């Protein structure tokens, strides 16, 4: 590849950067039009009105392909190549050695070029370049010090190899050694000469020449992976099967106590740029979600017990398995209606405020002896955990619900609605899943919040969202008579919009609250 | 089982030991096959804290030797009256923390070179003590020391 091509690349991509500031909406729009989503729906994801507006707490980012990552490296390499007047392959090795810090490399090179090359495991410029191997005459036979094979003086040039450091070995041993480093140790940029204590780096060209195609491909993947790992502004999409890289320049680690940098990969899935979490853990901070999940894993016995999918009817004690998203349960046996979350009678939920997301901490304060206190703290944890696990479970069940929804959409089409008029159903399921995930993490947040007025507001937002979600979930599960189909459509559309609004209110409040330093946690963040 | 690469190289090492002998204080105790060899190591001279002691070093070769380092441990062996040396880099189960047996292994090194390194590691030691956290390590250690992630932090002994 000529260096002219490279230069063009630079200009092309700089333009790209400029576009970035047009904001997320533009790129998200493209995504929704072109990207099939995970469930296989390929057209008409949220319409343009539904697209999230860019908020002050959203970050600007760009989804990169592996090719673009390679181009990025090439651009850096070309810059150093031009600046220091050294071969591109040398520039690449120097950059990797200096963790892609081009300024540091330049400084070091201008101070002492010889030492800089040596430190990076390269031959000093005075010695002949190992790339252009001259066909020298070998006058003595050679025995490979590794495998002890003998080579005649005619064979030495073709069957053995040195990297200019004076250590010569046969090609078979080199291949075996490099293959092992790549395959077994996952090494890439740091493969050194086989000579004892020799720091000379094996150049990529030599790797490509010696190891079979499959491994050399793995080698280059490892080089890319190392580049991404070394760069604080890049992160791999953590979802299985996805090879995209997210580029974001706004999230230094110190910002993570006031920012939840959720981004959406081109594969259609969310991740957190801050911590690499494979999902959208808003509204809760990276550090807290980590703490919470660790706590849940540590208390796994309790959690396992709690996560069991069955509960007893509070009236007749029949065992009930929850197989849908709605928390309004009706016992098949005794017809008792109750709430799956608090197990209280449903009649108290429908009309009055939905109180079961709150936990009465008075019991904790009033507890006299330590035993009661520890019981209260366990109860407190279980309170938040049940709600967290519940929404997690419901969100998963709702995903299964996609299939049912699809069938019902088909059924509606036989009842006079066009396909496009039935899409609202699927949008409602999308909305509900997103809202449940937000709710789920909001309980992890609530567990660590210090009780004050802001927390009261937070919990009341949580209550409102929870209620909106349950209403919508319930509405989605009822099978309407054909004649009220249009009314149902209206209801579901309205409820969906309401859920979305409540969800935004909760997230807005929490995420702007981080900037304002409004949230006080029981742990340090 | 040692393959072509390993056995050819080991045969060669063996022939060299037989013709040229081993350095003072190092003896090849057994090399029955191309899988496990046993060396004895003594630290010579009056300066050493290991005066009069004999240690047995077991080397187990994989098919990728010498590209890969052998599995090297000290063993207690009554036949040779050998004990596991008390040294800040030697755990009581015989595992050794030495960089040349890990990330600084080079395929040009050989059995005798390993023995010499072990001998000089013992010779430079001034105080008989086990590594920090010996008991905890020994309780949880894998049987193959190469599966342990070593952290090399002390170059003095």
From TrEMBL, chain A:
The keyword Repeat applies. Residues 1-40 have a biased composition (Acidic residues). Keywords: Metal-binding, Repeat, Transferase, Ubl conjugation pathway, Zinc, Zinc-finger. Its EC number is 2.3.2.31. Pfam families: Ariadne, IBR, IBR_1, UBA_ARI1, zf-C3HC4. Residues 140-360, 144-193 form the RING-type domain. InterPro entries: Ariadne, ARIH1-like_UBL, E3_UB_ligase_RBR, IBR_dom, TRIAD_supradom, Znf_C3HC4_RING-type, Znf_RING, Znf_RING/FYVE/PHD. Coiled coil: none annotated. The keyword ATP-binding does not apply. GO terms for molecular function: ubiquitin protein ligase activity; zinc ion binding. It comes from the Eukaryota. It catalyses: [E2 ubiquitin-conjugating enzyme]-S-ubiquitinyl-L-cysteine + [acceptor protein]-L-lysine = [E2 ubiquitin-conjugating enzyme]-L-cysteine + [acceptor protein]-N(6)-ubiquitinyl-L-lysine. GO terms for biological process: protein ubiquitination. This is RBR-type E3 ubiquitin transferase. The lineage of its organism: Eukaryota, Fungi, Dikarya, Basidiomycota, Agaricomycotina.
UniProtKB/TrEMBL annotation, chain B:
It comes from the Eukaryota. InterPro entries: Ub_conjugating_enzyme (IPR050113), UBC (IPR000608), UBQ-conjugating_enzyme/RWD (IPR016135). Residues 5-157 form the UBC core domain. Residues 126-147 are annotated as: Disordered. SMART domains: UBCc. Keywords: Ubl conjugation pathway. CDD domains: UBCc_UBE2W (cd23808). This is Ubiquitin-conjugating enzyme/RWD-like protein. It comes from Naematelia encephala.
């Amino acid at each position: 590849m000529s260096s002219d091509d490279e230069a063009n690349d630079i200009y092309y991509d700089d333009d790209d950067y400029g576009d970035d500031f047009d904001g997320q909406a533009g790129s998200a729009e493209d995504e929704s039009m072109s990207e099939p989503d995970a469930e296989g729906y390929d057209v008409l994801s949220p319409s343009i009105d539904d697209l999230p507006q860019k908020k002050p707490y959203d970050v600007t980012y760009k989804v990169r392909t592996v090719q673009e990552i390679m181009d990025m490296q090439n651009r850096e390499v070309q810059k150093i190549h031009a600046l220091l007047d050294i071969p591109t392959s040398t520039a690449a090795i120097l950059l990797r050695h200096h963790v892609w810090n081009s300024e540091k490399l330049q400084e070091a090179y201008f101070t002492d070029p010889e030492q800089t090359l040596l430190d990076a495991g390269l031959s000093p410029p005075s010695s002949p370049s190992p790339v252009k191997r001259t066909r020298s005459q070998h006058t003595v036979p050679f025995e490979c010090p590794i495998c002890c094979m003998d080579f005649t003086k005619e064979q030495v040039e073709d069957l053995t190899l040195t990297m200019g450091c004076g250590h010569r070995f046969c090609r078979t041993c080199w291949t075996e050694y490099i293959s092992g480093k790549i395959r077994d140790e996952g090494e890439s940029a740091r493969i050194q000469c086989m000579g004892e204590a020799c720091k000379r780096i094996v150049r990529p060209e030599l790797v490509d020449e010696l190891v079979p195609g499959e491994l050399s491909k793995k080698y280059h993947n490892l080089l890319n992976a190392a580049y991404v790992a070394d760069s604080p502004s890049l992160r791999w999409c953590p979802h299985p099967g996805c090879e995209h890289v997210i580029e974001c320049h706004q999230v230094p680690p110190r910002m993570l106590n006031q920012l939840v940098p959720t981004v959406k990969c081109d594969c259609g899935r969310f991740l957190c740029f801050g911590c690499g979490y494979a999902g959208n853990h808003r509204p809760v901070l990276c550090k807290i979600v980590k703490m919470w999940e660790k706590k849940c894993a540590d208390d796994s016995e309790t959690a396992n017990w709690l996560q069991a999918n069955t509960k007893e009817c509070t009236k007749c004690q029949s065992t009930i398995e929850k197989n849908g998203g709605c928390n309004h349960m009706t016992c098949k046996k005794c017809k008792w209606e109750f709430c799956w979350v608090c197990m209280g009678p449903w009649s108290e939920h429908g009309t009055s405020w939905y109180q079961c997301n709150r936990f009465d901490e008075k019991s904790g304060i009033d507890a006299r002896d330590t035993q009661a206190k520890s019981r209260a703290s366990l109860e407190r944890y279980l309170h938040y955990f049940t709600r967290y696990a519940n929404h997690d479970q419901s969100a998963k069940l709702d995903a299964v619900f996609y299939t049912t929804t699809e069938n019902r959409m088909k059924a509606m089409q036989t009842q006079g609605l066009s396909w496009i008029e039935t899409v609202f159903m699927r949008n409602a399921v999308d909305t509900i899943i997103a809202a449940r995930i937000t709710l789920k993490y909001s309980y992890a947040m609530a567990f660590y919040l210090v009780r004050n007025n802001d927390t009261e507001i937070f919990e009341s937002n949580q209550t409102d969202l929870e209620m909106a979600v349950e209403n919508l979930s319930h509405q989605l599960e009822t099978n309407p008579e054909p004649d009220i189909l249009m009314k149902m459509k209206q209801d579901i559309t309205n409820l969906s919009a309401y859920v979305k609004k409540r969800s935004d209110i909760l997230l807005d409040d929490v995420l702007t609250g981080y900037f304002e330093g409004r949230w006080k946690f029981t742990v340090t963040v | 089982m040692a393959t072509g690469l390993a056995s050819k190289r080991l045969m060669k090492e063996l022939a060299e030991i037989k013709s040229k002998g081993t350095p003072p204080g190092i003896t090849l105790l057994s090399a029955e096959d191309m899988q496990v060899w046993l060396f004895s190591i003594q630290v010579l001279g009056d300066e050493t804290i290991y005066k009069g002691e004999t240690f047995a070093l077991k080397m187990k070769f994989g098919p990728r030797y010498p590209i890969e380092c052998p599995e090297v441990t000290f063993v207690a062996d009554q036949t040779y009256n050998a004990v596991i040396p008390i040294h800040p880099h030697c755990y009581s189960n015989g595992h050794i923390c030495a960089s040349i047996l890990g990330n600084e292994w080079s395929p040009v090194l050989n059995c005798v070179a390993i023995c010499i390194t072990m001998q000089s590691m013992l010779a430079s030691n001034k105080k008989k003590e086990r590594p920090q956290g010996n008991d905890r390590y020994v309780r949880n250690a894998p049987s193959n020391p190469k599966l342990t992630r070593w952290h090399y932090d002390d170059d003095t002994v």
